[in-house]
Design goal:
Structural class: mainly alpha
Number of helices: 10
Helix content: 55-70%
Number of strands: 0
Order of helices and strands: HHHHHHHHHH
Shape: elongated
Largest sheet: none
Radius of gyration: 30 Å
């Protein structure tokens, strides 16, 4: 049945070339030969009888944008100049478009180069674009955020998160411990930070003291 449709399409193609294209009579045999040659090639290599099979979509970071939005509560200015850029970037991140998420924040930084939230967001987007590994560019973004406001909790929090995701548990533990030590008791991010530190230390296991810390 499929070949009947193929032949019908070929005949319609030839008819369109001859009448609609107003092809000269001398060139019509050549046009017909070209169409038949195409049919011959399809007959040799095509497989029209095979059933269709949908192509699986590429894996995307599930809920990444939602996770970042939740973790930023209490750490980012939700109504400041960075809010629209962060919201747009989160939208791209939710659909796995991490490169566009990072580029969006770079555009925002062109307008607000000293905004801590945008620098932190860029570090998060670059980490996500690197498959969860903190690249030198992501580390630089976190450093730029911390340099602009050393008291802001977001740069060390998300830098530690990126380190932990990349497998550097000791590095993450050091960064988060310092953040916890200077966080107020009523800070909205403190419970989450304490929980993460507890899980991190359990993963690290018992710490063996170094020789320098052992008293003679």
């Amino acid at each position: 049945m499929i070949w009947l449709w193929v032949m019908l399409a070929a005949l319609l193609t030839i008819a369109a070339i001859v009448w609609l294209g107003k092809l000269p009579a001398a060139a019509r045999p050549l046009a017909g030969a070209a169409v038949m040659l195409g049919l011959a090639g399809y007959a040799l290599q095509g497989s029209p009888s095979l059933p269709g099979k949908p192509v699986a979509a590429a894996a995307e970071p599930e809920g990444f944008g939602d996770v970042l939005t939740d973790q930023r509560q209490g750490m980012a200015d939700r109504f400041g100049p960075a809010a629209q850029w962060l919201g747009l970037s989160d939208g791209f991140a939710r659909t796995g478009k991490t490169e566009l998420a990072a580029q969006t924040l770079e555009k925002g930084l062109e307008k607000y180069p000293d905004n801590v939230d945008l620098w932190v967001g860029l570090g998060n987007a670059l980490t996500a674009h690197g498959g969860g590994m903190m690249s030198p560019a992501a580390a630089l973004a976190f450093d730029e955020a911390a340099r602009r406001d050393p008291s802001h909790p977001a740069p060390p929090f998300f830098a530690g998160l990126a380190l932990a995701q990349g497998g550097d548990l000791k590095g993450a533990e050091a960064v988060w411990s310092e953040l916890l030590a200077r966080s107020p008791a009523d800070a909205p991010w403190r419970p989450d930070l304490e929980m993460r530190l507890t899980q991190l230390r359990q993963a690290l296991g018992p710490q063996v003291p170094s020789e320098a810390s052992v008293a003679p």
